[in-house]
Write a structure and sequence with these properties.
By secondary structure, this protein is an alpha+beta fold. The chain has eleven helices and ten strands.
Length: 523
């Protein structure tokens, strides 16, 4: 659909247009387009005759200009002769107005492109996944790359067991002798049957000293050691995961406290501003209170950075693909008293620690290597049966070969394996002492952190809260100075942060004790 309105040689009602270039002739060429705009063609007297140039304008500007011409015409004296021209101009004005508004009404507004939601740095986002400490441990066991790489060694050793259990392959041999390759005239069936010789042999190596059984047992013992080492790596991975999870809980707790404290202090700033307006507080005191807000805002920013770093480190231990980027941790810093005595923990550690089990299995593997070395000192027997066709006869022969153990009796390897056994025994003793040391150190650290937490719980935390409440009430009623109030704020803030740090250190020492014992359940 297209609308074309044209007004040729529209003139004002002052009278007929004067000839020449001084006359101003206007032509309005209105077209309906996708946008509600018009193309106005003007023929100016100062340009050569017939020279046209376009001017693009909005419909509102065109209508406003036409309306000004209409008002100017009304101020003139209208005669019956030009009444028809005036009426035609009014009709034209209405049509132009409608044609300029129709596109805007009928045109479908374009659908705005979706704008991605962006949040400024430091603004917390709603977590899509929330995990507990048990879930974090399971994710670390299933997705930690270093642990998965270590587990492949178990399958490699199992394949080595297959290789160790293989028997020697039989040997097939064949030969043809006395063929007249350089005198082909001698080739005949009689020559082949009587003069040429053909041999076909089948041999097999018989291993003595049960070498295959010793190889298989040695490979199985190595696999057992690898399994214990993998379990020990899993133990350390779980310990690192729990430690990092506690660090994330501490950072989250510090962030919550910083936000709550900042909100409470902003309320105090608001009260101080009202007091300043009422004349009950000086401008200097108000500025000091407002400047103190910077410290609390800095605490919030630092806590957010610490939480982000802790979550990223925890995600690395669990595997980056196991959780989304904006995940969160669930849990609180808490105190769980330890009731088991140290000697019970040491006894459990002796039986549960995978590294100690690996050292003990290393002794077994060393003994297997000794048996394998002695078995390799036995000389193997090689037996062969040969079929021979010569002189028109079919003959058979048996061959048996065995090396004489005069010089090489594998005595060097046997001696080396005995030293390896001694080394494994010392390593087992060192591992046992390391286990006991880890348990004792973790237990003493736990008791020390337990005493610190109990100090806070038994009075210091409550006293800090009471001191802040009393000082704040006294300051608001004029019984305490501004310095006393700010000092109470700093003391309470430091006490709360120290208490949270003490809880985190206690939980970390408890996780360290669990790792030292080799068990999650210490009841």
């Amino acid at each position: 659909m297209r609308t074309l309105l044209r007004l040729d040689r529209f003139q004002s009602w002052r009278g007929p247009a004067s000839p020449g270039r001084a006359a101003l002739q206007r032509r309005l060429h209105c077209r309906r387009t996708n946008c509600s705009s018009f193309v106005v063609w003007r023929n100016l007297g100062r340009q050569p005759k017939g020279w046209l140039y376009p001017v693009y304008a909005n419909s509102e500007l065109v209508l406003a200009k036409l309306f000004r011409h209409f008002l100017r015409a009304l101020r003139l004296r209208l005669t019956p002769r030009n009444w028809s021209g005036a009426l035609r101009f009014v009709a034209l004005l209405l049509v132009v107005s409608i044609s300029g508004q129709l596109p805007a009404q009928m045109q479908t507004p374009p659908t705005p492109a979706p704008v991605p939601s962006r949040q400024g740095p430091g603004v917390p986002q709603a977590p899509s996944v929330v995990i507990t400490i048990d879930q974090a441990i399971e994710l670390a066991k299933q997705n930690n790359p270093a642990l998965l790489a270590q587990r492949t060694l178990i399958w490699q050793n199992k394949e080595q067991e297959v290789t160790a259990n293989l028997r020697p392959n039989p040997v097939l041999s064949s030969d043809a002798q006395y063929l007249p390759l350089f005198t082909p005239d001698l080739f005949s069936s009689n020559y082949i049957d009587n003069t040429a010789q053909f041999d076909l042999g089948l041999g097999y190596l018989f291993e003595r000293g049960q070498k295959r059984q010793h190889r298989l047992q040695a490979a199985k013992d190595v696999t057992a050691v690898t399994e214990s080492q993998t379990l020990d790596l899993e133990r350390t991975t779980v310990a690192n995961t729990t430690q990092q999870f506690v660090a994330a809980l501490l950072a989250k707790s510090n962030l919550d406290f910083a936000l709550q404290f900042l909100q409470s202090y902003q309320h105090t700033v608001g009260i101080s501003q009202e007091q300043n307006k009422a004349g009950a507080m000086s401008k200097v005191d108000l500025l000091k209170i407002q400047l103190q807000t910077l410290q609390f805002q800095t605490d919030v920013t630092s806590a957010r950075i610490a939480l982000a770093q802790a979550l990223n480190s925890l995600r690395e231990l669990m595997g980056f693909d196991s959780v989304p980027r904006n995940y969160d941790v669930a849990g609180t810093l808490g105190y769980e008293p330890m009731t088991l005595p140290a000697y019970d923990l040491e006894a459990r550690a002796r039986s549960l620690r995978p590294d100690l089990q690996a050292a003990q299995r290393g002794i077994t593997a060393a003994n297997s290597q000794i048996g394998l070395a002695k078995a390799n000192s036995k000389q193997d027997l090689n037996a062969t049966f040969d079929y021979t066709h010569v002189n028109a006869s079919n003959l058979g022969a048996f061959f048996v070969t065995i090396p004489l153990p005069i010089f090489n009796r594998n005595q060097g390897e046997v001696a080396r394996t005995y030293y390896a056994l001694t080394q494994s025994q010392f390593q087992e003793k060192a591992a046992e002492q390391q286990v006991l040391t880890d348990v004792k150190n973790a237990y003493e650290t736990l008791l020390n952190n337990q005493e610190i937490v109990q100090l806070y719980d038994n009075g210091y935390l409550q006293q800090a809260q009471q001191a802040l409440d009393i000082t704040q009430f006294s300051y608001q009623h004029g019984a305490a100075s501004l310095l006393d109030f700010l000092d109470a704020e700093r003391s309470y803030r430091a006490t709360e942060l120290s208490y949270r740090q003490a809880l985190a250190e206690y939980m970390s020492s408890l996780e360290q004790l669990r790792a030292a014992v080799g068990a999650r359940d210490l009841r």
